[in-house]
Design a protein that fits this description.
Layout: H1 2-15, H2 20-36, H3 40-58, H4 63-78, H5 82-100, H6 105-120, H7 124-142, H8 147-162, H9 166-183, H10 189-204, H11 208-226, H12 231-246, H13 250-267, H14 273-288, H15 292-309, H16 315-327
Helix pairs in contact: 1-2, 2-3, 2-4, 3-4, 4-5, 5-6, 6-7, 6-8, 7-8, 8-9, 8-10, 9-10, 10-11, 10-12, 11-12, 12-13, 12-14, 13-14, 14-15, 15-16
Length: about 350
């Protein structure tokens, strides 16, 4: 499919030189398709060109412009360009509120996506407030079993966990997984994401055997449904490796983390936040195995990359500083963030 899309993209400029409107629509469609396949680098230039055309010709409040802006922001976010995504999302939301109203599904999707960006940059109180509002409106307007309501439950559970409200997060995630399996099916990507997040909460609650069993199932199904190189598969590998490490199965954890790092560099690029976190996980396993020099070198690189990509005050950068400091201590204890591997659900308009 990707090869077919590549051929179509290459033909656009040649075949539609005199049809700029049609070309822009096809750019938006192809960009959204790349986005759905997890091919963010391929999606971004197409969506940028579609956004630029629609904004210039139709204006910033036209539906085609807003759709292109929304999907471009999702691609930026998925590619690790958090600042660009946040800026675009803060621009999109007030436009949608004005054009469509505060309870329109597209407005609520934009609110949810902006909350994801707030969470990404450490503005967690703002993320939680938006997510509570989104869930309240979606539950009232769409009903508790609608897929968009399930997505809102998923994201709010993440904010509850970030805020230390773990019991509330766990109850919400168990309810969400039960509904997801019923409404979406056991192999739907959103169901798999719900399984992964519930496993994270089980682990945080000390129910580690349940977390490990669930994560093994998630990785098996994610590889089957999405393929071995999809970003969600990489997240599932990360989570399972954490459970293996917690269970003392350190060789399996290290093997899985090294595979995850290799795939992340290929799929996401060497400076993507997911790749940097994969490197930090390999450092954890090296530390657990007594390979402290390797752990130290990796953690120095992780800190440099997070300082460059996320900035000096981001939670990931501060965590990297802590872990590097611990590498120089005689008693090394790595910090493992409880939400590592947890993914917020972005909402795209296609």
């Amino acid at each position: 499919m990707a090869e077919t899309l590549d051929r179509a993209v290459n033909n656009l400029d040649r075949d539609l030189t005199n049809q700029p409107a049609r070309r822009a629509q096809l750019q938006a469609t192809l960009g959204s398709t790349y986005l759905a396949l997890g091919l963010f680098l391929e999606a971004i230039p197409l969506l940028e060109r579609a956004r630029d055309y629609h904004r210039a010709v139709s204006g910033p409040e036209h539906p085609d412009t807003l759709i292109a802006m929304n999907n471009l922001a999702i691609s930026y976010f998925a590619d690790g360009r958090g600042a660009a995504a946040l800026k675009l999302r803060e621009e999109v939301l007030p436009l949608l509120r004005r054009v469509l109203g505060p309870e329109h599904p597209d407005t609520l999707s934009a609110m949810s996506n902006l909350a994801n960006s707030y969470s990404d940059v450490g503005r967690r109180d703002e993320a939680l407030k938006l997510r509570e509002e989104v869930l309240s409106v979606r539950s009232r307007v769409l009903g508790p079993s609608h897929p968009d309501t399930l997505s809102a439950m998923h994201n709010l559970a993440i904010s509850y966990a970030d805020a230390g409200r773990r019991d509330e997060a766990l109850r919400l995630e168990e309810e969400m997984l039960s509904l997801s399996r019923k409404v979406l099916g056991p192999e739907h990507p959103d169901t798999l994401s719900a399984m992964n997040n519930l496993a994270i909460s089980y682990s945080a609650a000390g129910r580690r055997d349940e977390a490990l069993t669930l994560r093994e199932e998630v990785l098996r199904l994610t590889r089957k449904v999405l393929g071995p190189e999809h970003p969600d598969t990489l997240r599932a590998m990360h989570s399972l490796a954490s459970s293996y490490s917690d269970a003392g199965r350190r060789d399996q954890a290290l093997t899985l983390r090294e595979e995850m790092l290799r795939l992340s560099r290929t799929v996401l690029g060497p400076e993507h936040p997911g790749t940097i976190r994969a490197m930090a996980s390999v450092a954890d396993s090296c530390s657990d195995a007594g390979r402290r020099d390797e752990a130290l070198q990796l953690r120095e690189k992780v800190l440099r990359l997070f300082q460059k990509v996320k900035g000096p005050e981001h939670p990931d950068t501060l965590s990297a500083m802590h872990n590097l400091a611990m590498s120089t201590s005689p008693l090394t204890v790595a910090t493992r963030r409880s939400n590592c591997g947890r993914k917020s659900c972005d909402s795209s308009k296609r």
